[in-house]
Amino acid sequence: MPKRTKEEIAAEKEKEKLRALRRGPDLDRFLEGKKRTFVSYAQGARIYSMNYYSFVTLAKAAGANIRIKKKVVIDLDVIEEYLEKQCLEENGGV
User: Which residues face 88 on adjacent strands?
Assistant: First the structure.
């Protein structure tokens, strides 16, 4: 196996950095230790047993979307408050 030159090693490291940037931020690092529960659209749709696009619409209506670069996370606490408020309005404030 031939030895790699310093230039080849540097080029490989640069390519790895670019791949990491394309993957986006490590959301677990940003959300670690937080009290609130954050999920992706797909995870939220599974939690609430909803269609994906119905959950996206619900999250947007509740204003629970948080954009981090090109990723979006949903704050489940905001969704819960929104759903409770909607139920109270439908039941006449009971």
Answer: none
What pLDDT was estimated at residue 35?
67
Each residue's pLDDT tens digit, 49-90: 999 999 999 999 999 999 988 889 999 999 999 999 998 888
Q: Where are the domains of the chain?
A: 25-90
- The 10s digit of each residue's pLDDT in 14-23 is 888 888 777 7
Distance CA 92, CA 87 (A): 9
Tell me which residue of 78, 80, 66 sits closest to 27, measured CA to CA: 66
Q: Counting every residue, how long is the chain? A: 94
From 34, 70, 39, select the one nearest 56 (Cα to Cα): 39
Q: Which amino acid is at 83?
A: L
Which residues are within 8 A (CB) of 67 and not within 5 positions of it... i.e. 6 or more apart? none
Is 1.10.760 the CATH classification of the domain at 25-90? no
